[in-house]
Amino acid sequence: MKRAVLITAMFLGAGTAVAAPAPVEDVAGGSSDERVARLERIIKAKQQSEFDTQRRLDALQKEVLDLRGITEQQNYQLNQMLERQRQLYEEIANLSTKAAVPVASTENSVTTDVAATSSLGETGSYEAAVNLVLKERKYDEAIPAFRNFIKQYPQSSFAANANYWLGQLLFNKGENAEAKKAFNTVVVDFADSNKRGDSLVKLGMIAEKDNNQTEAKAFYNKVLKEYPNSASARLAQQQLSAL
Q1: What is the mean pLDDT of residues 159-169?
Q2: Pick from 60, 121, 146, 190: most CB atoms within 10 A?
Q3: Which residue has the higher pLDDT, 33 or 169?
């Protein structure tokens, strides 16, 4: 009896051993510990990738900010240059007619200045002519200096401005016919010049002085059409309103 019970117990134990569940494994066949380790590696890799991406984004943002700063600085410098140029033109525009000087003295001075500027080259000759106006206030001497520059360098990048300066100086002296020629040269020959709008305004003013209001209005309206929202347009509108 005892032997039968013992045999039965052995069979039951063997059955229990066979029915025990297998160790837990993931879809790849690894154990739960291996799966956890694999998940940890995946999470760490994802975190590193996100960190690297954020670092690149931060670097790009810094580059954008740096470029924006450079652009703003360049715009500021450009605006400063444009403002300085505008001031220079306003100064020449507000020049009053100088009192007449003895002919012999003027001729000698003009001859000397023209001879001096002729040897300076393109840029030097232009700057010398401008300096006669802005620094030395030798307005009569500046006229032949600009004429000489225009004759020597008709296609210079300064030619449009030189013609405008010449026209303004002649306009201030009341030599309207010669001034008209200079301003018209800017309008016709230098269509891309930033002084074209101003030259059209001056042609309108000359037309007013010649009692030709129809022509003056045509010049002013041309400025308003071709250069809206500009300083030239504002001046043209003022002249139109005064007619």
Answers
A1: 95
A2: 146
A3: 169
Query: Does an H or E element contain 96, and which?
Result: none
The whole-angstrom separation of Cα 158 and Cα 147 is 12
Q: What is the mean pLDDT of residues 88-99?
A: 53
- Distance of CA 220 to CAs 51, 181, 204, 205, 233, Å? 63, 18, 6, 9, 8
Rounded Cα distance, 240 and 121, in Å: 42
The whole-chain average pLDDT of the chain stands at 76
- Nearest CA among 227, 238, 169 for reference residue 200: 227
End-to-end CA distance of the chain: 140
- Outline where 94-195 has alpha helix (H): 103-118, 121-134, 139-152, 159-172, 176-189
CA 81, CA 90: separation in Å to the nearest integer?
Answer: 14
pLDDT tens per residue, range 96-135:
444 333 333 444 444 444 444 455 688 889 999 999 998 8
Fold of the 179-243 domain: 1.25.40
Residues facing residue 31 across a β-bridge: 25
Give residue for tokens 């450079």. Answer: 70
**Listed residue (98, 186, 183, 181) closest to 142, CA to CA:** 98
For 174, residues 6+ apart whose C-beta sits below 8 A from its C-beta are 97
Instruction: Using DSSP, state whether 23 is helix, strand or coil.
Output: coil
CB 196 within 8 A of CB 205: no
Q: Which residues pair with 25 in a beta bridge?
A: 31
